[in-house]
Each structure stands twice: as structure tokens, then as C-alpha cells.
Amino acid sequence: MQRGWWSTRVMRREVLDFKWRHSVAYNPTDRVSKFFNIILLNQFLRTHPIGLSKRLNAEKVLQFQNSGTAKRIFQCRRFCSNNSSHVVSWQIKFWTVLVELSGTVIRVRALIILARLNINVDYKIAAAAAATSLTAVAFSVEILRNIGMFKMPFQIQAIPLCLAISFIGLLSHADPITKNFRCISSNCCDQHEWCGFWAGIGECETNKNWMNRNCQISCKKCDDTNTIVNSTTPTPVTAESAEAKKVSQPSVSTTKKPTAAPPRQMLRRGHDPLFCAEMLRLNGSERLQEMARNGAIVVFEDATSRRLLSARDMVTNNQMMGCFREQDSSDCNRNMCFHAMYRTLDGTCNNLRNPLVGAAGTTFNRILPAVYEDGIGTPISTRPGSRPSAREATRFLLSSPQLVTSSKGNMLLMPFGQFIVHDISRTSLLPADRCGSCTDIPGRCFPIKVETIDPRFGCVRPPCCLFFTRSSPLCGTGAQSKREQVNENTAFLDGSAIYSSSLPDSLRLKDSKTGMMRITFFNNHVMPPFNPHTCFGPNNCNANLDVGDNRGTLFLSLIGVHTIFLREHNRIAQQLLTLNPTWSAERIFQETRKIIGAIIQAITYKEYLPKLLGIRYNSLMGNYTGYNPNVNPSIINEFTTAAMRFGHAMITEFYERADEHGKSVPNGKIRFDQGVLRPARLLFEGGIEPVMRGHLIMEVKRPQRVTTSVTENMFGSTDLASTNVQRGRDHGLPSYNKYREFCGLKKARTFDDLSNEILDPNLRNNLHQTYKQTDHIDLYVGGLLEDPVIDGLVGPTFACLIAEQFRRLRDGDRFFYQNPEIFKPDQLAEIEKVSMSKLLCENMKGTSKVPKDAFTVMKESEAVSCSSLPSMNLSKWSTR
User: Where is the ShKT domain (predicted)?
Assistant: First the structure.
């Protein structure tokens, strides 16, 4: 097949002739195209259906979108219409959905062609193409494999117009060295940094001519007596270097030949799974040393062998299928040296024995089996009299306008807790468009019943309801087996709220020329990226901040936490680049991401969790004894659906803003609902700093009741607390009493048996009046109403479930920061120095004093100078 040209002819009474013309050009300064920049120049569409005298006019709109450096999306829209008025008019709409590039090999994820003819029968013709060749234009139509992803009806009785479109591209994640990347004494060279990888996946045989000419070392076309004289790491592209590259190419190295020839196999150990597997047995120091010595440090994630879905793709998937298809498994051997050093974006291959454990797009784990009314998927409260309406439970037990604070912590606990929850879990939801307020569609809609006398949501003409969409079930569950729900995020505490849990989304968020995260500088504030041209003033600003989790802009201080870690990533990345000028941009990104993940873990386990669990922290968590591959770190359904939602009860009615000296700003209070989905307030009212400093001087609200801002006015027409109760029923969570037993508490046979955990007798009486039986109490309601443990903020049942989850996340995460296999001892010592207080100092303008413990209320007499807090010495990451 001639490279760069493709033509095919489909003949069935009609002729459809496509001619694709590709212009292949290489621009070394173009970070998008990298190696090939393939431009589709022209397409001709000709067809001659019987009875038509005129040719169809074809209008093709081709939009090239670049999201990040290592991702391209081609979205093709073709609208073909018949101009002949005497023939039944018909139209065909073609959509190309989700075309992704990953690594150096193109993956055409799904290409859907919908043909609708207004005659006797509707044809839905779907086709998909996948190409995995380096440079050849090779197309493989894998219809069943790809269409199974969407469950589209597939019938080809006749194909009046059959379109199979695809394209071939080549993408490398970092600016390639395309001249003498690695050479030996006889001028036998690898011209590209990815030659070793291409050779490892068989391109030396698939594309002999090109590979033998450009990847001679990796394809073993050199004399065995030759030795390597130049093996460099590609230099990160800066503005200066990019300009320089426009003028000249890197020169051939003249480094002298070493006296001792390294073993021949060392040339490609970076892609030798056996060698990389051996490296996994070494601790951090030895592993890094050996892998560096053998040229085996691989910084690019290879995801070419499986489908990748962005967050938007997951929504589309749910809409089309009505369920969530679980993540594809991964062959960890393909990229073993990468897995030895770095996490994948979607969490696969953290556990090398079970690659999907803890990965994004997999089911939630459970402590206790699900309980459904029909044993399969019908929520148990659908039986009359079984449980009160979720709204009634909220009205009579949870909702309260009274503010009760705790001196055990400050308000920063609220957004930080929300940040880490978003990092480790996101429940996949079914589309809400079919669920009206009282629409009850089995399996999809589960409305919350509301009494007509409800002061906020009651109605004149019953029935009265709050709309509720059920969580998306895992495909194959809920029909013959118990319905299970899916976590769209990685379970690991890995910074995915910053970087996302999918490679396609991550590529949009990072700058692949520098290894830094993309930012927008607006009104003298460094913020997450957004389009500044949509923001014209405080009352006319549609800034849509782009962060790793699409819930990141829910509240002002949550945006603040995201922004602090975004700035910290770029601060560390800049220092690593200074210390290691030969590191590639991708290595800068991966090393920084690894450090940021460790910092988040250190703050969570050393500062945040002790505030929640109080004196029970050590007994509940136990000591860390190292990575245990037999521990399942997947997020527990009870944790994400009930226990960790205690944070919603930390929300208060008003929030302070403070100046550089920690003083409350006069008239600076923000009402909660005025800070929901309002990033413009940060852009035009001083940035994140006043809001975050205001959190430091406020005592945290005790999370045993839920403020009316959440139960009556959340997003204008819903009740978040009732939604939480209903979500537990949707997921089939057993009763509160079952989890008391699991956590070692006495099973409550009467409501007075709850007296040790719920001290207020009036509250126990209200609980009795609402639920009638102790075995009917919802986990979220019972757990939230418990009085907090000593020196903690949550009750014993939630403390037990939260500790259970974070213990699993610690012990079952191969990349947990204290695992001696991950960081060198001196690097770990530097990470242990980091505190949330220091992060605030480093990343908030005008901040000179903070509380020594960032999660305690800052008092002027106890505030410490930022300069007195220890800093992380990044020279421990220098390879000079």
C-alpha cells in the first residue's frame, strides 16, 4: 500500500469513490504534530444512485482540535443531500465520534456513521476503523469490537452510501530529537527518541524500510562491535529553544568512544519487560540508579492497546448504552519500565497482578452486600412504609439553621476534604434529561417524594417530588445480578483532581513543551486555564475553569485548593527543570506529578485525617508496613455514598474573607449560595487569597447537621442532603444498624440502644418517630447524627468507615509515598517536611504568616512566619 494515499471503491448499484490526499510534512517546532503533521487536503464524494440525474452535493466540515500535546481529535461532519426535487428527499448525517491518538500509535477509538434514509426502512450503518501502524496507511475495520462499545443496532441489508473514514497520524508526546538522537561510532543511529519503543512493538518488521533507515540501533542493524557514544535525553522545549530550533537542527555528537563497550542488550532495556520486572524488586535508590544506568527510564505511558475515554466520552457512553462499560484490562508488560517509575493516569497497572484494581472506570467495592427490594436493583424504599421519604428524613432530622462550630479545626477542612474526595471518586450517573420531577422510570429515575405541606418544595397538586437520576449501573448488572455502580476516577490518592483520571483529558490540561500545567493569567492572578475572552467584567463573565475534575468549580474555596496545587506543580516543575536541564518535558511532568501526589498523601494522612478521627486515628489506621498487593484499594461504596459525604454538613451559611494580616475584611462575607459556581468572584475580587485566608480564621462547622443553604437552596431547586439519602438507597446500602455491627458497635434493637452514640434523647425520639424501626435507619442519616469521637469531628461509625477506606488506599497503593520502592530515602525525607501551611505560603500572594497547622484556627498570637516553616529541597531530585 502506497504510503500517504488511500482510495477505496464500494460498489453496490451505486459508486462511492473517495480520494484522500495527504500532505506529510515535518516541522520540528510543532509540538502537536511531533513527527508527522498529516494534513487532509481534499476529499471528493461522487455517487450515482439509480433514478437520480444529478450528483449529490457534499459539504464536509473538518475541524482539527488540539487538546494538549499528545491528543488529536478529528470531528468530521458530512451532510449529504439530494438536489433532485422529483425524488424522495433523503439525508445522511455522518459523525465521527472520538478519535484519539495515544503514544506513538494512532488509535481510532470509535467512528460512527449513521445513515438515515426516508424510505421503507431506516438504516443505521456503523463502522469503525483502528490503525496501529507506525507510518503505513493501514486500516483495519473492526466493526463488532468497536460497535460493542456503543451497542448500536447493526444491520447492513443494503449500503446505498457506505462511508468508512479514517486517517493515519503519528504522535510523540514530547518534541522529538530527529537527528542523531543516539549514535554509535560508525554513524549508526537512532534518529528518534522513541525508536526503542517502536522496535519493541514490532515496527522493525512492519515498517522495515523506514525503521531500518531511521532506527538502526533499535532494529539491530549496526555492527555488534559498535558502542554507544551519544545517548541523550531530549531537552525540554522552552521559548528560547523553540526559536533556536527554527533555525538549526541538533548537531551530531562528537563525544569520544568509551573504552568499555556496554552489553548489546542494554540498548533497548527500556522496553524489555523482564529487565523492568527485575527493577521492581529494588528499592527507590537502587531502582533509579540501575534504570538510569541502563537507559531504562521510560516517561511515556503506552495506552495504545486499549480504549481510552475522556470524562465527556463517559457521559456519551452512558447516554447511548444506559449503563457503564467497565474499563478495558491492560497488559502491564507492554510498558513495564514506565510502571516501575510512574503511575498511569487511569490507575491501571498499579497492581501488576490485577491491573484493574483501583483503576478508573471500575466498580466500587463493598463492605457489605447490596440490599435491593427485588434482590437485583430496585431500591428498597419503593415499598410503602418501609422507610420515610428521603426529604422527610432530612426535614425532621438533618436540616438545621443553627450553627455549631468546633475548635478542633478551621474551615479549610471543608474544601480540602472535598478536593480529596473528588480525587478518589466520581460516581457515574445516567442522563437526567428523561427524569422529570415525578417521573419514575424503573432503573433510571427514582424521584424523591415530597409532602404537599413541605414549606420549601411542597405543591398544590400532588404528587410532589424532587427529581433524581439513578447512578449508572455496570453493564451486565441490575438484570440478573445485583446492580453495581462505577467509579469514573482512580481510587488512588494520586492528584487526579488536578491531572484527571484519563490520558485524553490530561493532555488537554498540561503543557507538553514544558511539563507544566496550563494556566491563565488574568487580572494579575494565576488561575486554572479558561478562555479570558468570555470574561468582560464581574457581572459578565462566563469563565469555565478547566481542572482535572469537572466538579472543581463548585465553590470558591474548592477552586482555591485546586489553584494552590496547580501553582505548586508549576513551581516544582520549574525548579526541576533548572536542576535537570537535560530532562524531557514529559519527565519533568511525570516527576512533578509523582511529587505532588506524595504531598497530597502526606498532608491527608498526617494533617487532615487526624482531625477527623481524633484519638482513634492510630488505633483505626494502624502502622504502615509497606505495599500489600492483596489489599484492594478500590473505593468502598459505603464510603463514597454515605460516610465521606459528611463534608456537606460542614458547609456553613456565610464565609469570611481576610486580608494579608489575617484580619476579617469589613463587609467581606460571602453567602454560600453566592459562591457556588461563581469563579468570576475570584477573578474580580482579589483572587483566591482573601477567601482562603478567611477559611483559616473560621472555626469549622460541626458536621452533625446540615445547613438550610444546602437543604433548601442548593442550586435553587434541590436538597443535597435528601439527595445523599436517596443515593444510598439507589446504591442498595444496607441499614445503619448493619454498619454499627461491622464497626464493633452494639446492634441497636431499640432507639435507646443508640444512647452511647447519639446523646440527645430528643434526637433519638425524632429518629424513632421518623423511622419507626432501628433496622430502617439509612446509613447516611444514622452516621451523620452520631456525636463526634473524642478530639474528632465525625461519629464512631463514619470514623470506622473512613479509616477502613484510607487504610486500604495506603496499603494497597504501590505508589504510596512511604513505600520504600518509590522514593529514595533522602527524597522521602524532603517530602515529609511538606505541610499544608507551607503550600499556602508558597502559593498565595501576600501571605507572610499562617497557622503552624493549616487546619487549626489561626490566631494572631500563634501565627508563624512562612520563612520559619521547612521547605522541600528539590536538589535531591537532581541527576547531575
Answer: 188-222
